[in-house]
Structures are given as structure tokens and as C-alpha cells.
């Protein structure tokens, strides 16, 4: 490699000067005396002392290499002895995992053979080296905190998918997941571990003991008197369950916690190289500290912080000699971590900003100047890997000093432009995954993290409501509670300030990676970052079904927030320079990115389906996209898509198209690629802290494969016009000379206004995708800590109440309650401190504002995309998903710490999101069933809360009417349960109110809230009534579909409870004989309860329809009114007869109170039926009441007894004696006066009197009918029709 700069050119391996005496004058070398003094000052002896001038050798550049050889060889004799094979150890000197024969089960092993991830039930693997004498240690870096057993085993141990290390004789293990030790039997031992911890495994074969340490803290002796003697040698070994991962350090890198006296790592450190590297680094320090004052002819001490090379030939050639020996050593991971990283960290220990230490930049310049390129590359790679391991596995201390230290050095290295571009191109995403640098791990053990000192006073809310709000107001706090809360909040603020320092450093790293001004020597960093970032997203998006390949979601959360901060910094910076551009508060992704092919969305679903589906649907209409020149695309971008065509192509057609395309692609693929294409792709960065690029897949069939990442080429078949990630340049992204780059193909609906730099738009698009991939799920997961605090707080309060009520004479009970109180208090103290950490790192106000900003970005993006008409189908589904999920997170996850209502523009945002949900839940351009269901569920959630329901009412009237019309569409051929639920929530329940203790038709969906108080919308009810009255086709089709679904749901419910009661009766009889209890399958009971809930909700919708537009049933001038009324009466009578019959199936199920059938009760279903009957028979005009009465009484299933049952007027059975009054409590609406008013009960009484009188009159006027006169088909109506010529008789 040829050096450049300072007007001198020379090769590192060819740097010696000519022996001509005048050469020094030409090159600017100082005189021989000063040079001799300088070289002796730099290259001191091993003891650091310099011999007297009279006795020391005269040094020049001609004999310097010989002198260096002597200095470096001084202690080689003593060091060489250490490199010999140590006694007590058998096996290769380089210790790795035995991937050829020493494993059981399915395992993925990293390329360096040190990291492993489980890929089966319980896989086991051992190392290649064993020990039989002495004291030995190795470390395990815990990447996941799941089920693993780590320790030692002998060669004779045989493991399987159920038994691993510690489950057989002569194998010993520690399990930090269950906090136990294992050797055939198991007992409690140690502490629980967490991801980011380091376990040290120690074996003393002289004393026969095994011990373990966690993060350098001894857990005590785990086993003693282990088997020793002839043939007994112990291998490091591990057994781990599916997707758990660790990395081993047998000594190939410096042990993180080597402070265990007398114990040696299994792999000896390279001592001779280590001594050489330390000496050479000492010489380098001497060069930095020593200056040459040529005019004075003397050496001077220099300030190292301000040292610069400044092109001095003497210094440069001296450094070249040092690097001649140092460069090969800096390619070894042990030396980089132990020597180089330690030296660089010491430079930053003086404090101050990273910019105040330019020495690191100067040293990196020297490395690029004096080392071969491959040496610099390897050194930088190992340095960053060492920094990442150190950051990830550093223990958490109160000031986060260790994490800050490593991040500062990372920033210092990345500030060097050439190093940054190399690392970004080849290391940060390809090997390391820089995402790890943006993670702040949560402490599992708050004591070790020092949170007790940082937050000495703990506090927790007394109780939460179902909505997550505190039920106890601050004004009701006692003085002691108020003091505790304020002290706790002060502690949280102290913690927040320290974490903000780390977050600030992480943002600095991203700002360096997003720099687009460093174009010297190639492409700017931002465009390298964009391409790597897109590949990172592709890996996580394309492998969502395989958990082992995903970036951990907790990393994604932190990365997302740091990236948003950095993005907005550059976005607003561009706005300051370009006033016409938009600010980050107005940010959105323009719709042309979704269809112009400039951004790769892989195989993600679009709103109109997969891209291949859209191509097939559009047929010739969008084929010009494939070949259109970018300059012509803008003028021809308005491609029309027929929504009817979108619906006509089924997903089956799409599957066939995909299969044919896949088979065609595979037929062209070389056979060698096919051999490995099906292998499980898994980047090693997640599974192992060693962060290897490749990995090995191990199985008991002795298969070892190198698994490539998912090839990009297989996705090319679904691209319209997409450049591969590696092919894109800055011009392709930003555009130039009339080329709009990413924004080519602007639709006419899109305003001609600059937004921001195109590269920032792609980063924004990636952020939205990241949130959809795993961030939202992780936000929901971390809420569990808050739920635990709530549960323990309620348990503690309950225990304290019991203590206060406990009689003094019952000391035994009192003592047990005190013990429980202590346990709950200690757990709450721990959880409240951990919750403080989580609230600061995940649920802080700043994080909430990030998610809110992302919500608004998605809303604006959807609004702009919607204006493009049919091109809206090209938008990826995840934009709608993120809009819905981010709102859900703001409402449910960040409260009560922060309130969404305090966010700026909250009301407007709520209304705009409501408009999106109302418009698009039935949008024909959206074809995916999953996203349509999600939109429906989000709308259902919206109408459950008064505040969000008011937002729905504020959307434009045209959109409201269109939403209600879509809700009233026939239920057939579409998911109707959610639609029905929405209509139920909009109903004001005016006839009879449901009992809040009973579930009312709630869909079985975890995303919907539990039953809320009714929040009716008279505005939307009015729209519904107008639609049903005005559209004569809409009302019959809607009501017939509701009646059909009610018939199905109630019939299914009755059939299921019949099966359930028969099964229960037989099992009770068997249980009586065997004294066992075994009831019906809970899943069957859950389905049964769901059918009941659906029946009730359908009845409620019928009640709403009858109340809002009774003329649909009672105005017989309408063509289908009489038929609808007869169908309604028939179904109501069937429901009443089934539910009100004495000692029937329904009664038995209600009385059994089976788990899973708690919602099945008389009240909800009878109230709904009664509400319909009251509206038809009482709250209507005389003519309507007469028609309804006639139809109801004419139905053969009508029984007056069922109506009497509603008010408790049950008739005694003629077949059995009446039960005592205390034995059976009859149902009666009179017992629910808390929910039913006296006025409503009076209406029910009036209805009963009316039906009783009318049924008597009907019975008196009806002549008896013989069986011969009845219809031979239904036997319910008299014969009224004769069919000729067959002469069959029927009632119709």
C-alpha cells in the first residue's frame, strides 16, 4: 500500500532510507544526534529506563529494525513457555464448539463456532476441549433469558430432546431461568439471569468442585465431590430450548470477569503477541508524547490531546517502523480488545466532548496510511465487534458510565470519514447490526443496577380502572402518600436525565450515519446507510414467521425512537435551508413511492393485494410502468384501476399466478443454488454476541450447512420497475437535472411543493415499516410490568385490610398475614423501580410524542394516497396498520403516565383517523381480508368510548352517511359480527337497559375493550333511520340477513347446549362412580357462549331497527313489511319458548354456572326480546299494534306463558309437583329495578295485559280444526291451497 500525504510516498514494507548520507537532507530528517536521542526516547528498554548516553547504541533508521527485533525478543523465552500445551487439558489449543459430533438435536452454530442458537425442543452441544486436572474457567454470554442448562459433561454423557446437561450422571449444570442447579436431581441455586448477563463456569478438579458466577459475582459452590480419576475429563457443554441463544468465550477473547484467583481459561491467551503489542503500543505513546524542536535541537514533551502528524518525516518513518510490527497483531481479536480498545478508551477518559479528543482521528489516519488495507479492515471490524460486545454485556450501574464510555468511543471511530464508510458498507449492518448500539437494556435485578440508590423511595398507584386511569384522585391522597409519590417522581427524573445522556449519544451515532455531506472518496454515508437499512428491513419483513431470524423487538423499539429523532433533526435542518420545503410536523410519504418502483417493498401486501396481483388485475393498463422512461412517467402516471376488476380477481387466481411464477423461477435456478436455497436463513447477529456473518445448521443427522441469506433475486418477479438495493446511487434517490429520483411519477392530485430530501422520505418509510414489524407488539408486551404492579398493589391492600380485621387472639393468622404483607411490599418495591426504568426508556412523554408524530405521518400519507383514486391500491397495508396500532398504543399503553389528550392537535387527529376508518373499512380498493377486519375492529373500538365516538360524529356528513350505509349492507358474504357489534354500541338502549355485569354481544377479540357503558349516538341513529326509510331495497336485504344470522346463531347455541348437557350428565354419573370431576371441553363452551352473545347482539340490532324505523315492519304498503314482521315474530317466539320453559336445557345450563358460560343468562336475551315486543305492541299507533298482535298470535309457536315468564308469573307444571318457593327462584324483570325503570316495567305489564286479552278473544273466535283440515306439511295452518294437476294440498 502506498501512503499519501505530506509530499512523501513510500511503501510500508519498503520504507527504509538509502545509506547515502545526503539523503537525510533531501527528505528533511533531523541530524543524527537529535535522531539518536529521539529514537532512544521512543524505543525504551523493557524496564522503561534509558542507558546512559555513553553506553547506549547509536540509533539511525538504518539499524532501527535490528534494534526493534532485539527489544521485542527480550522476553520471548519466558513467554514461549506459556504458549505450550497446559497440563490437565486435552484437545485443540483453539477451543470451539464441536459441530461435527459433539451435539444432539437441531442447532444453529455461528461461523466462528462460538455462538449457538437452539432450533429444537432441547438441543445440546459440547466444546472440542476437555480438562482432567487443575482449575479452569470459561464464560457464556447470555443473549436470551429462556430455558438453558450450562455447565460441564463427560464424553460418556448421552443427551436427547428431553434430557440435557445436568440431567445425566457426570454432567452438572446451572439454569438461571428456573434458578436451579442440575445433576440428575435439582435444587434451588443462584440468581435469575437476563439477556446481557455473563455466566462464568468454574471447575476445580483438584478439589472436585464446580461453581458459577453471574456478572463476576460468585453464586457459591454448586457441586462438590464430583467424579474424578482415570478416564474422567469434563467438557464445557450447554443444553438450550428452541430459539434460545448464547455465545461462548473459552479464552479467544479476554475474559470479562477474570478475577478468580488460580483459574485459567480453557484457551490460553496469546501471551507473546500480547507482550509485543503492549510494547509497540508503548512506543506509539512515546511518539505521541515526544516532540522535536529542530531549531533548538532538543526533544520536548507534547500535549497528547493536540498531537498531529503535520507531515514530519522523522516522526512518520518512526511510526512506519512501529506499524510494521503492530499491524499484523491488530488483526487478532484478542489483541484488539485487550490492547487497542483499552488504549483508545483511555484517551477519552479525560472527559469532555468527543470532538475534544482529535487524537483518535489522527490514529485512524495513521492506520489507513501505514497499514495494508485488509489489515485496517480486519482491525476496524474487530474493534467495532469488541465495542458492541462490551456495550451489550456491560452491567447496568446507576450512572450508566460503562455504556456511555463505549458509545463515546464508537462515536469517535465513526467520526473518521473513511472508517465510517468502510464500517457502514461492510460491518455495521452486514456483521454487527448497529441496532444493538441503540438498545438500552432493562435491568431484571434492580439491586445490581443501583436503582435502590437512585430511587430510594418507591410508590405505586392504589388502583386502576379498566381504562387504565387511576380511580383515586390526587386530592384524595394522604400526606404520606403525596410525599412518597413526589420522592418517587424525583427519583424517576434523576434516572431520566442519566438515560437521556445515553440516548443523546445514540442519536449522535445515527447523525453520523445519516451524514450526506461526506462525499469525499465515494458515496455519502447516508446513501450507504439507506441501502443497508432497506436490506435490514427486508430480512425482518420476509422472515416474520421464523422467530429466530428477527431483530429482537426490544432493540427495534429503541432504534425507532433514535431514528425518529435523527430524522427530524435533518428534516428540519433542510427546512431551515429551503423555506419552501415542509417541516417535520407536516411530514408524510408521497404516494408515488408506492408505485414508481424506486423503493423496494419486497413481498409485502399492498392494499390491493400483492404487486403481482395488481399487475394481473391491471392487465395492460399498467404494463407501461415496466418500461416507461423516468422523464415520461410523471406525465403518464394517472393509471386508472377499475375497482370491480380488483374484486373480480380472487385470491385463488393470485395463488395460481404466484405458484406458476415460483416454479418458473426455480426452473431457471442453478442446481447448486437449489441445494442450499431451502436451508434455514438466519443472520448470526441475533443468536450470538459473536455476531458472525454466517452460521452452521446442525442436526442429529450430522448435517452441517452454511446458510446464505434470502436471495434478493427471487423477489424480482414481482417488481414493476425496481432497482436492486446495491444498484441505487445518490442520483437514483435524490434525482438531478430534471430527474425527480424517488419522487418520479407524481400524480396530478399531489401538490407540486417540495417536501424534503428524497433520502429522508425513504428513511421515514422505513420507520413506519419498523413500527409495524415488531415495535407495536413490544410496546404492548412491556405494559405487563404495570399490570403486575397493579395486581400486587391490590393484593397488598387486601392483605392490609385483613390484618386490620384479624382478631388479636389469632396470632398464627396474624403472623402469616404479616409475612404475606412483607412479600408483597418487597415485590412492589422491586417492580416500582423496574417500572420507573421502563417508563423512562419506553413510555416517557418524549417517546409518546414520537409515536404520536408517527400516527400523524400515517394519517397524512393515507389522505394523500386516497386522493390518487385507484392508485391508492398500491399503498402497502402497513400504513393503515400503523395508523390504527399507534393510536391504540397512545390510548392504552402510555396511560396513566402520560395522557394522549395533552398532545397538540389531539382532537383534529382523532377526527381525521375516524374519517379514515369510516371511509376505508368497506373500501373496494382494499382487498385483503386481514386489513379489512382490522379496520372494522378499529372502528368498533372507536365507537366504544364517548370521546372517540364524538370524533366519528365530527367527520363530514357525506362520509357519516356512507359509513352507515356500509354498516347496513347485507351480512352474507362478509364478516358480520364486528359490524353488528358496532351497531349495538351505537344503540341508545332506550327500551330496557342491559345489566352491566353481563357481557352483551361482545366479539371475541382481544383488541376490543371490555363492555363499556352505553355511549349512544343519536346523530348516527338518525342517519340509520333515514337510510332504512328512504332505501326500500336496503332495509329488506339488511333485515333478512340479520334474521338469517339470528336463526343460525341461536340454533347453533341450542344445539351446543344440548350436546353439553348430555355430556355433562354422563360425566357427572361417571364422576360419582370414580369420585372425579371432568366437565366439557372449554373450547366447546367458549364457542357456545360466543353463539349466545351473537344472538343477543343481533336481537339488539333488531330492537334498534324496530325503534328507529318501525314502519319497515308495520307499514304494509311496503312490499316486504308483512313478510319481515312474520319472520321476526316467528324467531321471537322460538327464542322465548326455548329460554322460558321451566326446567329446560337453558335453565339447566344457567344453574350449572359452567366456566366459560358465565355470560349465558336469562336477563340479556329476554331484555332484548322484550324491548322489541314493547316497541311493536305498546310504543306504536293503534293500527301498527293491531298488525303486530295479529301476526304474533297467528304464529303457531306463540305461548302466552312465555310472556308471563318475563314478570315472574310462572305457571306450575302439570307433570310434576311444584317445587318449594325456596328451592327455585323464578326470573322476573321486577328484580332488576337498578337497570329497568318503573315506567319501562309498566310498559311490559301493559303488553302482557294486551296479549292476554287478545289471545282470549282469538281463542274464543277460532273454531276447532280437525287434523284433516290442517296442512299435511306443517300441521300448523289450515289448508288453503290445492295444487293441480297433482291435487296436493298445502297452506301455501
Descriptive tags:
seven-stranded antiparallel beta sheet, transferase, single chain, 1292 residues, 8% strand, 23 strands, ten-stranded mixed beta sheet, ubiquitin protein ligase activity, disordered N terminus, EC 2.3.2.27, 43 helices, alpha+beta, B30.2/SPRY
Topology:
Layout: H1 23-27, H2 32-42, H3 64-73, H4 76-82, E1 89-90, E2 103-104, E3 107-110, E4 115-118, E5 123-126, E6 130-131, E7 135-142, E8 148-153, E9 171-175, E10 180-183, E11 185-188, E12 198-204, E13 209-214, E14 217-224, E15 235-240, E16 245-249, E17 264-265, H5 271-289, E18 290-293, E19 298-301, H6 313-329, H7 333-348, H8 359-370, H9 373-392, H10 401-414, H11 417-426, H12 428-432, H13 451-454, H14 479-513, H15 525-542, H16 553-577, H17 611-618, H18 624-627, H19 630-633, H20 643-648, H21 651-668, H22 671-677, H23 684-687, E20 695-698, E21 704-706, H24 730-734, H25 758-805, H26 811-841, H27 845-866, H28 878-892, H29 906-920, H30 929-942, H31 946-953, H32 957-967, H33 977-986, H34 1018-1030, H35 1034-1074, H36 1082-1108, H37 1111-1114, H38 1121-1140, H39 1145-1152, H40 1162-1177, H41 1182-1194, H42 1200-1205, H43 1238-1261, E22 1281-1283, E23 1288-1290
Parallel strand pairs: 7-17
Antiparallel strand pairs: 1-6, 2-5, 3-4, 3-20, 4-16, 5-15, 7-12, 7-16, 8-9, 8-15, 9-10, 10-11, 12-13, 13-14, 18-19, 20-21, 22-23
Amino acid at each position: 500500500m502506498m501512503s499519501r500525504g505530506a509530499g512523501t510516498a513510500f511503501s510500508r514494507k519498503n520504507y527504509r532510507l538509502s545509506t547515502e548520507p545526503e539523503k537525510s537532507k533531501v527528505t528533511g530528517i533531523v541530524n543524527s544526534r537529535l535522531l539518536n536521542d529521539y529514537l532512544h526516547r521512543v524505543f525504551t528498554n523493557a524496564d522503561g529506563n534509558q542507558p546512559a548516553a555513553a553506553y547506549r547504541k547509536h540509533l539511525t533508521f538504518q539499524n532501527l529494525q535490528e534494534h526493534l527485533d532485539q527489544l521485542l525478543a527480550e522476553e520471548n523465552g519466558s513467554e514461549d513457555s506459556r504458549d505450550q500445551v497446559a497440563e490437565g487439558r486435552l484437545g485443540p489449543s483453539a477451543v470451539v464448539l464441536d459441530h461435527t459430533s459433539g451435539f444432539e438435536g437441531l442447532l444453529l452454530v455461528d461461523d466462528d463456532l462460538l455462538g449457538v442458537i437452539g432450533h429444537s425442543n432441547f438441543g445440546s452441544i459440547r466444546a472440542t476441549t476437555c480438562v482432567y486436572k487443575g482449575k479452569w474457567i470459561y464464560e457464556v454470554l447470555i443473549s436470551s433469558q429462556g430455558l438453558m442448562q450450562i455447565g460441564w459433561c463427560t464424553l460418556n454423557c448421552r443427551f436427547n430432546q428431553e434430557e440435557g446437561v445436568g440431567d445425566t450422571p457426570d454432567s452438572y449444570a446451572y439454569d438461571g431461568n428456573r434458578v436451579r442447579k442440575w445433576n440428575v436431581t435439582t435444587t434451588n441455586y443462584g440468581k435469575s439471569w437476563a439477556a446481557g448477563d455473563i455466566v462464568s463456569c468454574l471447575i476445580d478438579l483438584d478439589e472436585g468442585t464446580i461453581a458459577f458466577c453471574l456478572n463476576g459475582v460468585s453464586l457459591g459452590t454448586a457441586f462438590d465431590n464430583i467424579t474424578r480419576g482415570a478416564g474422567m475429563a469434563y467438557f464445557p457443554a450447554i443444553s438450550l430450548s428452541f430459539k434460545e441463544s448464547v455465545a461462548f468465550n473459552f479464552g479467544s477473547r479476554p475474559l470479562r470477569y477474570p478475577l478468580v484467583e488460580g483459574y485459567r481459561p480453557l484457551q490460553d491467551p496469546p501471551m507473546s503477541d500480547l507482550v509485543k503489542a503492549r510494547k509497540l503500543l508503548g512506543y506509539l505513546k512515546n511518539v505521541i508524547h515526544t516532540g522535536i524542536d529542530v531549531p533548538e535541537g532538543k526533544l520536548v514533551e507534547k500535549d497528547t490531546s493536540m498531537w498531529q502528524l503535520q507531515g514530519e518525516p522523522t516522526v512518520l518513518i518512526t511510526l512506519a517502523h512501529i506499524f510494521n510490527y503492530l499491524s499484523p497483531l491488530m488483526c487478532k481479536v484478542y489483541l484488539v480488545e485487550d490492547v487497542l480498545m483499552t488504549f483508545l478508551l483511555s484517551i477519552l477518559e479525560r472527559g469532555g466532548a468527543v470532538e475534544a479528543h482529535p487524537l483518535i482521528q489522527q490514529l485512524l489516519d495513521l492506520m489507513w496510511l501505514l497499514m495494508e488495507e485488509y489489515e485496517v479492515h480486519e482491525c476496524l471490524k474487530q474493534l467495532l465487534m469488541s465495542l458492541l460486545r462490551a456495550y451489550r454485556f456491560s452491567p447496568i450501574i446507576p450512572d450508566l458510565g460503562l455504556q456511555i464510555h463505549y458509545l463515546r468511543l464508537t462515536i469517535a471511530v465513526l467520526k473518521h470519514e473513511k472508517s465510517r464508510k468502510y464500517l457502514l458498507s461492510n460491518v455495521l449492518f452486514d456483521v454487527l447490526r448497529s441496532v444493538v448500539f441503540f438498545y438500552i437494556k432493562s435491568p431484571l435485578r434492580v439491586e445490581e443496577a443501583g436503582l435502590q440508590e437512585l430511587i430510594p423511595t418507591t410508590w405505586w398507584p392504589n388502583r386502576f380502572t379498566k381504562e387504565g386511569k387511576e380511580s383515586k384522585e390526587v386530592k384524595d391522597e394522604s400526606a404520606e402518600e403525596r410525599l412518597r409519590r413526589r420522592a418517587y417522581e424525583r427519583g424517576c427524573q434523576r434516572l431520566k436525565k442519566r438515560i437521556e445522556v445515553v440516548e443523546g449519544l445514540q442519536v449522535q451515532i445515527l447523525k453520523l450515519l445519516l451524514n450526506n455531506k461526506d462525499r469525499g472518496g465515494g458515496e455519502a454515508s447516508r446513501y450507504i446507510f439507506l441501502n443497508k437499512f432497506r436490506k435490514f428491513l427486508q430480512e425482518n419483513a420476509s422472515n416474520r414467521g421464523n422467530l429466530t431470524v428477527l431483530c429482537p423487538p426490544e432493540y427495534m423499539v429503541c432504534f425507532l425512537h433514535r431514528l425518529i429523532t435523527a430524522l427530524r433533526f435533518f428534516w428540519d435542518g433542510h427546512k431551515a435551508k429551503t423555506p419552501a420545503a415542509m417541516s417535520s410536523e407536516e411530514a408524510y410519504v408521497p404516494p408515488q413511492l408506492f408505485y414508481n418502483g424506486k423503493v423496494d417493498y419486497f413481498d409485502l401486501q399492498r392494499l390491493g393485494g400483492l404487486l403481482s396481483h395488481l399487475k394481473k388485475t391491471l392487465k395492460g393498463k399498467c404494463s407501461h410502468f415496466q418500461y416507461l422512461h423516468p422523464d415520461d412517467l410523471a406525465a403518464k402516471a394517472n393509471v386508472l384501476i377499475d375497482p370491480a376488476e380488483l374484486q373480480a380477481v380472487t385470491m385463488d387466481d393470485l395463488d395460481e399466478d404466484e405458484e406458476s411464477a415460483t416454479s418458473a423461477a426455480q426452473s431457471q435456478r442453478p442446481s447448486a443454488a437449489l441445494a442450499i436455497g431451502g436451508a434455514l436463513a438466519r443472520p448470526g447477529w441475533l443468536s450470538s454476541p459473536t455476531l458472525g456473518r454466517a452460521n452452521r445448521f446442525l442436526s442429529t443427522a450430522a448435517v452441517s450447512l452454511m446458510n446464505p441469506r434470502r436471495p434478493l433475486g427471487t423477489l424480482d418477479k414481482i417488481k414493476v420497475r425496481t432497482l436492486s438495493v446495491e444498484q441505487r446511487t445518490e442520483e437514483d434517490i435524490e434525482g438531478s437535472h430534471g430527474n425527480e429520483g424517488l419522487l418520479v411519477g407524481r400524480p396530478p392530485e399531489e401538490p407540486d411543493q417540495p417536501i424534503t430530501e428524497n433520502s429522508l422520505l425513504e428513511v421515514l418509510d422505513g420507520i413506519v415499516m419498523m413500527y409495524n414489524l415488531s415495535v407495536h407488539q413490544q410496546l404492548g408486551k412491556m405494559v405487563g410490568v404495570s399490570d403486575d404492579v397493579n395486581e400486587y398493589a391490590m393484593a397488598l391492600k387486601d392483605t392490609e385490610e385483613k390484618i386490620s380485621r384479624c382478631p388479636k387472639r389469632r396470632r398464627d393468622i396474624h403472623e402469616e398475614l404479616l409475612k404475606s404483607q412483607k412479600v408483597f411490599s418487597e415485590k412492589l418495591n422491586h417492580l416500582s423501580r423496574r417500572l420507573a426504568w421502563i417508563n423512562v426508556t419506553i413510555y416517557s412523554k418524549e417517546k409518546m410524542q414520537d409515536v404520536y408524530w408517527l400516527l400523524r405521518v400515517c394519517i397524512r400519507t393515507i389522505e394523500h394516497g386516497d386522493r390518487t383514486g385507484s392508485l391508492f391500491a398500491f399503498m402497502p397495508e402497513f400504513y393503515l396498520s400503523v395508523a390504527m396500532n399507534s393510536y391504540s398504543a397512545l390510548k392504552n399503553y402510555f396511560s396513566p403516565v402520560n395522557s394522549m389528550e395533552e398532545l397538540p392537535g389531539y382532537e383534529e387527529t382523532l377526527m381525521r383517523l375516524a374519517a379514515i376508518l369510516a371511509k376505508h373499512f368497506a373500501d373496494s380498493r382494499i382487498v385483503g381480508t386481514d386489513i379489512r377486519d382490522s379496520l372494522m375492529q378499529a372502528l368498533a373500538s372507536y365507537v366504544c368510548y364517548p370521546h372517540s365516538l364524538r370524533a366519528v360524529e365530527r367527520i363530514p356528513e357525506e362520509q357519516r352517511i356512507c359509513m352507515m350505509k356500509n354498516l347496513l349492507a347485507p351480512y352474507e358474504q362478509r364478516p358480520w359480527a364486528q359490524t353488528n357489534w358496532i351497531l349495538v354500541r351505537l344503540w341508545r338502549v332506550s327500551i330496557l337497559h342491559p345489566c352491566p355485569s353481563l357481557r352483551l354481544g361482545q366479539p371475541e377479540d382481544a383488541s376490543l375493550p371490555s363492555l363499556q357503558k352505553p355511549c349512544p349516538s343519536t346523530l348516527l341513529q338518525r342517519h340509520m333511520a333515514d337510510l332504512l326509510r328512504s332505501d326500500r331495497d336496503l332495509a329488506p336485504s339488511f333485515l333478512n340477513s340479520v334474521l338469517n344470522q339470528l336463526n343460525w346463531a341461536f340454533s347453533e347455541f341450542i344445539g351446543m347446549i344440548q350436546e353439553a348437557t348430555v355430556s355433562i350428565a354422563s360425566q357427572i354419573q361417571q364422576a360419582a362412580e370414580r369420585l372425579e370431576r371432568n366437565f366439557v371441553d372449554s373450547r366447546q363452551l367458549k364457542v357456545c357462549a360466543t353463539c349466545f352473545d351473537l344472538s343477543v347482539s343481533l336481537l339488539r340490532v333488531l330492537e334498534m331497527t324496530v325503534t328507529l324505523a318501525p314502519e319497515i315492519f308495520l307499514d304494509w304498503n311496503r312490499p316486504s313489511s308483512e313478510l319481515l314482521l312474520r319472520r321476526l315474530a316467528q324467531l321471537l317466539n322460538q327464542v322465548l319458548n326455548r329460554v322460558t320453559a321451566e326446567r329446560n336445557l337453558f335453565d339447566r345450563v344457567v344453574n350449572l354456572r359452567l366456566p366459560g358460560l358465565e355470560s349465558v343468562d336469562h336477563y340479556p336475551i329476554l331484555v332484548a326480546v322484550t324491548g322489541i315486543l314493547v316497541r311493536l305492541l305498546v310504543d306504536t299507533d293503534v293500527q301498527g299494534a293491531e298488525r303486530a298482535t295479529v301476526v304474533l298470535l297467528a304464529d303457531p309457536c306463540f305461548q302466552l306463558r312465555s310472556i308471563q315468564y318475563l314478570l315472574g308469573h310462572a305457571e306450575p307444571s302439570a307433570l310434576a309437583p311444584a317445587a318449594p318457593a325456596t328451592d327455585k327462584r323464578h326470573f322476573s324483570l321486577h328484580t332488576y329495578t337498578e337497570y329497568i325503570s318503573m315506567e319501562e316495567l309498566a310498559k311490559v305489564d301493559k303488553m302482557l295485559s294486551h296479549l292476554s286479552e287478545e289471545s282470549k278473544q282469538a281463542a274464543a273466535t277460532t273454531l276447532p280444526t280437525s287434523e284433516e283440515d290442517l296442512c299435511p306439511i306443517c300441521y300448523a295452518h289450515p289448508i288453503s291451497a290445492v295444487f293441480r294437476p297433482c291435487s296436493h294440498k298445502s297452506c301455501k
